[in-house]
Amino acid sequence: MKTNSEILESIQHELIVSCQALPEEPLYSSHIMARMAYAAMMGGAKGIRANSIEDIKEIKQTVNLPIIGIIKHVYSGSNVFITPTRKEIDLLYQEGVDIIAMDATIRVRPDGKVLSEVFPTIRQQYSDQLFMADCSTYEEAKEAYELGFDCLGTTLSGYTEYTQGTELPDIELIAKLVRDFPIPIIAEGGIWTPEELKRVFELGAYTAVVGTAITRPMDITKRFVQAIKSDV
Q1: pLDDT band for position 222 (50/70/90)?
Q2: Domain contains 107
């Protein structure tokens, strides 16, 4: 069993592939996500980001790579849906994922509280667990760092109400986080090409997550179709 330091070292300057599909998507299946993860591993990925206990269990049977685990769950009255409550964190911890990622935005969570009110007790209880903060702004990343997260991700830049329209990948945010915080910065969100991936590493990103561009053929197809229509 790897230590937290060994887990982080194994993904440094490497590619993490996000293998996720939601119920309304064609590839929604734990078996398919496990095969996606296997294909990613065969292609050279050194980590997997996965959603749901069911998918994580299946992926574990297929690959031996560090897993960033999340549980997406929509609760009424809150826009926070990536590992939004203590319930999801408990489930991921019990499953033994290497890194638990959670929404680290300023938005009010399903329990009516904000991150600074809930994370300190989580950090204290699960002191041996690596936590990744999915942020959308510099200020959110700063707070997450001060609260004790182990790594900071740009995952939600462009996806919160107050960052909509941000050009992705968010090069400016990645550069600022690398400059100001001495913990791993994970570039995630809107990386579509190998050139963009190379760019975020040149900025100093510790590692990077690519999802849609690799594991969502419906969205990839849409981009090609849109390219045709734009030329007509």
Answers
A1: very high
A2: yes
The average pLDDT across 17-24 equals: 95
Question: Considering the entire predicted model, what is its pTM?
Answer: 0.97
Give dist(CA 184, CA 129) in Å, integer. Answer: 15
DSSP state of 66: -
Domain count, the chain: 1
- Angle among Cα 180, 121, 3 to the nearest 5 degrees reads 65
Q: Find the CATH number of the domain harbouring 21.
A: 3.20.20.70
Q: Is residue 231 part of a domain?
A: no
Q: Where are the alpha helices (DSSP H) in the chain?
A: 4-11, 30-43, 53-60, 86-95, 115-125, 138-147, 171-180, 194-202, 212-215, 217-231
| Tens of pLDDT, residues 167-187 | 999 999 999 999 999 999 999
CA distance 16 to 50: 10
- Kindly state whether residue 175 falls inside one of the protein's structural domains: yes
Q: Is the peptide bond before 217 cis (omega within 30 degrees of 0)?
A: no
Q: What is the 8-class DSSP label of residue 156?
A: T
pLDDT of residue 185: 98
- The residue segments making up the domain with residue 213 are 4-225
Rounded CA-CA distance 211/224 in Å is 17
Q: Which structure tokens are listed for 215?
A: 């594991």
